[in-house]
Amino acid sequence: MDIMPFDPKSLRLYPDQPGVYLMKDAAGAVLYVGKAKNLRARLKQYFAIRGDEREMIPYLVAQIEEIDTIVALTEKDALLLENNLIKRHQPKYNVMLKDDKTFISLVMTEHEWPMLQLVRYKGKPKGGGIYFGPYTNALAARQTYDLLLRLFPLRQCSDAELASRERPCLLYDIKRCCAPCVNKCTKEEYQAYVESAMRLLKGKDKDVVRELKKQMEMAAEGLEFEKADQFLQMIHQIEHVTSVQHVDHPFAKDCDALGLYREADAVMIALLQFREGKIIASEHFSFHRIFSEDAEILESFIMQHYKMAPPKEIFVPIPLPEVLGDIVGATISTPKIGRKKDLIQMAERNAKALFVREQDARSLREKRLLDLQESLQLVRFPRRIECFDTSNISGTDSVASMVCFVNGEKDKSKQRIFKTQGTDDYSAMKEVLYRHFVKAKEKNNFCDLVIVDGGKGQLNLVLDVFQELSIASVDAIGIAKEEARHDKTLTQEKIFLPHRKDPILIDPRSPLLFLLQNIRDEAHRVAVEYHRKRRSKRTLASELDDLPGIGPVKKKRLLQHFGSVKAIRNAPPEELAKLVNKNDVKTLLKIRDC
């Protein structure tokens, strides 16, 4: 680090106004985006001998070739500009939320008979309804969704099915739906279920229980004992779920508490959500290779995380600019004493505990990767592993997949799916390998280890592609299950290595074999799933292809609205008339007889 590509002396020419700076490497890629009240003074700290003493700063400075600046009028403008530039350039040393692209939320739809749905969206949600979320933890959102459908018998069928159904479905028989489709319940009864579900989502479980008890007593007085028993079961389930809340802070009505813990360039943020005085969720976010200061990390996190429906208050351990609260629509404060301070300390303890646990897990994964390198005699440490698999039926709808594992964990952002021209597994595999590594060579962005699902033949395909493209910096292996089985039982696996006649056999109970199987099975799952999707799409669309007057645009519109040809076949004429003309409706009604 004796030579710095960027000349610090040029900083005297930089503006001393507030704004944003972009640090770039020799290839012009943005390494880091930051903001400052005084750009010149802030940038000088990076290069001063006793300026910024964070131990990871020299690694960043050594890569800087160029620094661009953008002057902002106000501190609020600088915050917004920094957030937009981070999203656009995705610098490797800035905080970027993994779930920043799509969010999962719960929505109560706008309808005469509303239904609860799980939806994903990018940016702002589309369509009407009341949204709850977003949830960065998809599993927690699905568990909440399942719980509410068990508690409240709301409909689960589509609008088209609701309109066309003539008798109740199985869900009514098992008391999981009150069958509004055939008027088995009144609108008032159904709306009561809807309102109770929404109150529960808002954390008002006591109000819900109180209301259910009233309804239970009314049903009992009216001698509707079966109905009263249903209310009693709902009350017991809600009380069972809410009884696990071991933290009760009546003053914390609607707030989030953030805790931060870091060691060098690794950062953990813990978020505790309090609603109606109870902690309803705990989430954590880990970041690595982060060069920002703690305050900048929290600013960036809040800007990215609270895109909609923020709580009334957000408690943070470090004072942040007041304008940040104006941007996200919440009061952001740093309590110094009292029980609100206790919430931050609780979040910080959670952040530290999660950091330690994650570091231990990462150390274990690194040890396994080292064992893998030694056992398979790999030249390189397999930090980044890419696995390829293909899928087709008699050469039709041929596809392939590539999954990527970094430090033993799947990196979905690097996952790829391919349509191929190959008529068999060998030709499809060679085509995909060639296409993928041509691009990797152009960008000089290679993995450390390639795994192919198959034996010696598939491995030789990889070696042929490497030889053709003059690639000598990537290891390759093939893994084949007995009789090409793709189950997860303890069967013998064969590991094929380059320039070695016989395969290596690994103990079926070995954690190394489990790692390889997990990677291979994930590639197989993605390939098969994509193949089925293509085949299903082609099969479903075929029934509409030969109908006169139904062209590609109308076909797409119908399938997007109804979801399937079966739903189109069962849709009432008045519903079809909303999308196509009268003649087309008559044409579509003909497929009911097919």
Unreliable segments of 5+ consecutive residues: 243-248
Helix content: 40-55%
Global structural class: alpha+beta
Beta-strand fraction estimate: 15-25%
Oligomer: single chain
| End-to-end distance | 74 Å
Average of per-residue pLDDT values: 81
Strand count, sense and barrel status of the largest sheet are:
8 strands, mixed
Number of helices: 19
Shape: globular
Explain what this protein looks like in three dimensions.
By secondary structure, the protein is an alpha+beta fold. The protein has 19 helices and 19 strands. Strands 12, 13, 14, 15, 16, 17, 18 and 19 form an eight-stranded mixed beta sheet that branches. Strands 9-8-7-10-11 form a five-stranded mixed beta sheet. Strands 2-1-3 form a three-stranded antiparallel beta sheet. Strand 1 (19-24) and strand 2 (30-36) form a beta hairpin. It starts with 18 loop residues before the first strand and ends in a 5-residue tail after the last helix.
Question: Could you give a short description of this structure?
Answer:
This protein has 594 residues and is α+β, with helices and mostly antiparallel strands.
Secondary structure layout:
Elements: E1 19-24, E2 30-36, H1 39-47, H2 57-61, E3 66-71, H3 75-89, E4 103-108, E5 116-121, E6 130-135, H4 138-151, H5 159-164, H6 170-173, H7 187-201, H8 205-221, H9 225-242, E7 254-263, E8 266-275, E9 278-287, H10 294-305, E10 313-315, H11 322-328, E11 331-333, H12 338-375, E12 384-393, E13 396-406, E14 409-410, E15 416-419, H13 425-443, E16 449-453, H14 456-468, E17 475-481, E18 493-496, E19 504-505, H15 511-545, H16 552-562, H17 565-570, H18 573-576, H19 582-589
Parallel strand pairs: 7-10, 10-11, 12-16, 16-17
Antiparallel strand pairs: 1-2, 1-3, 4-5, 4-6, 7-8, 8-9, 12-13, 13-14, 13-15, 17-18, 18-19
